[in-house]
Amino acid sequence: MELEGAALVTGGSSGIGLAVVRQLRAAGMAVAVLDRRPAPVDADLVLTCDITDEAAVVAAVGRAHDILGGLTVAVLAAGVGGFSPLIEMEADEWDRVVGTNLRGTFLCLRETAGAMVEGGRGGSVVAVSSISGFLADRSMSHYSVSKAGVAELVRVAARELGPFGIRVNAVAPGTTDTPMFAGTAQLPGYRERVAERTALGGLGTPDAVAEAVVSVLGMRWVTGQVVAADGGVSLWSPIDPAESVIERPGR
Questions:
Q1: 180 Cβ contact list (under 8 Å, min separation 6)
Q2: Which DSSP state fits 140?
Q3: What residues contact 189, with CB distance under 8 A and at least 6 apart?
Q4: Do the beta carbons of residue 180 and residue 17 sit within 8 Å?
Q5: For 128-169, what is each residue's pLDDT tens digit?
Q6: Which end of the chain, N or C, is less surrounded by CB atoms within 10 Å?
Q7: Which residues are catalytic?
Q8: Model confidence pLDDT, tens digit, residues 193-242
């Protein structure tokens, strides 16, 4: 596939975002990274930006647009996680997760899409959602709601921006071995259980999810879609009757 012009990646200093940066650079694109705590990355421009801060997002996207000579691609990968039972969750914790994952994605989508409309060359945006946006994960209500919101944001944006030649999609990872996922190491047997329930086996990697993101970026006749890049873990069903069948030798 051919991706032309310049790209902006939020959350591009680690995890899936960093893997996307590397793959876009390998494809020959100029890349700007927006991250709250940027680490050294192989990018043309690295800007410190808290995506929950509207003024900071407006300034950072504007600077990336000006320095790189326009934007044709945006990958909105910045996000945070959290774990708290609903009845124990503080409002500040809800606001932290929803504010970053949904409000922050909205702000970045608004500004990058605006830059693409101004450029007049169309473009492609992929937001990183999650399969948690359509599953019911206990103690993750704020995270799940924020990712479900991202999926609907993408659908509405795709309708609004289509006339400008801008495609808007989402990729929904499952369990992926990123710094955010590292916190699950304290949950006994969690990783092993997930790996067992994943159709392709094991955990996802940032590179594997980034491949999905870059592929969707280049799909010229696809917009408003959410593509699960989860190795099939969301196919697992707790009511699958086949799990009750006793397999006998030779069957």
A1: 15, 79, 80, 81
A2: -
A3: none
A4: no
A5: 999 999 999 999 999 999 999 999 999 999 999 999 999 999
A6: C
A7: 143
A8: 888 889 999 888 999 999 999 999 999 999 999 999 999 999 998 888 88
